Amino acid sequence: MSKHQEATTAKRRWRSMLWTVLAVFFLAAALPSASYLFAQTSSGELPQRQFSEESETNPRSDMWRSARRGEGGFTNQSGPYVTNELINNSGENYRQIRMGPLTTVGGWFLVVVFLAITAFYLLMGQKKIDGGRSGQTVVRWQTYERFLHWLVALGFVILAVTGLSLLFGRTVLIPVFGHVGFSAWAEVAYSTHNLVGPVFAVALVVMILLFIRHNVPNKTDLQWFKQGGGIIGNKHPSAGKMNGGEKVWFWVGVFALGLTAAVTGFIALFPNWGFQTREIMSLVLILHATAGILWIGLFLGHAYIGTLGTEGALEGMTRGRVDVAWAKQHHDLWYQDVLASGEKPVSEEELKARKHQTGPSGSAAGQQGS
Length: 370
Ligand code: HEM
Prior knowledge:
Elements (H helix, E strand, L loop, with lengths): L2 H41 L15 H10 L21 H35 L11 E4 L3 H69 L7 H8 L17 H26 L8 H32 L4 H5 L2 E3 H7 L1 H9 L5 E2 H11 L5 H4 L3
Helix pairs in contact: 3-7, 4-6, 4-7, 6-7, 9-10
The chain binds protoporphyrin IX containing FE.
């Protein structure tokens, strides 16, 4: 082939390559446009940009505005609760309350309560039994009452730890465990909270029914409050089986906050009772968390007074019996009732001897809380 022929062939190759590339681009643009045109002719109008001359507002933004306002439109979603609603703002409102005041105010509330109790203990120390123990004891709590108390207490601690983990996961736990570590724990915490909750609620109601008779308010409680419960100083205001402070724990903590947490917990756990709209569920979850936080705050006070705060109180709930000196100091009117009922104080030695006689199980003293 001559040089001239070679140049002509090369030119032809370049030309055909160019046309091929152009054809590919043309087809790539033309084929989708063909389906576009087809759709336009078969279904009538296609959505058009219809900005008016006067305003430069996109009419679709009005559509999103009305969706956000919750105005009804058309939807093919069907179901018993939220339908005909493209955007529901209450979810965002709930998120802001949960991530805002609930976590910040709630979190600081618990920190302040904890610090206040610690400071009180460091300043005041434990409330001792004046003049020491007598060595004589009387029955304070029966076995079934103690069993119920510790069952409820165990459930409470599990629910408090798992509930707080879910509420403060993002602010406190993710920075410590990382996302992967927290998500593993969150799954366990979530399932445990939902499983233990209903059992705890039933035990709580039984406890309320059993303990309510000890907590009927009376005039003695007023005197007890007037004297500040004898918390500061050496005065020991009179009290029956439960003093004013314990009654506050019972009515505000166990009864009001406990039942609020239990009822809202059930509503949240079973969202299919027919009235649970998204707004109601948001409110219920906020109430549940608020009641939980306040209850935990009061619980810290109750657990402190029952352990570190008062010498001789815990053994009433563990072995069932309390020292007579403790009974006279903290619950004088109740102690008189105990004596009036015919019960006689028993010395520690006699209790040991009784236990020895009857063995570790099934002793008479054991049944009465030894
Ligand atoms: C785990 C920590 C807890 C400790 C150390 C503790 C300790 C005590 C003690 C020592 C008593 C006896 C007080 C007395 O004899 O005067 C008591 C009573 C009581 N506790 Fe607890 N408790 C704890 C948790 C709870 C929880 C979680 C609840 C309820 C949710 C609860 C509800 C009660 C009730 C209702 C009474 C009887 C007082 C009354 O009826 O007013 N306790 N506790």
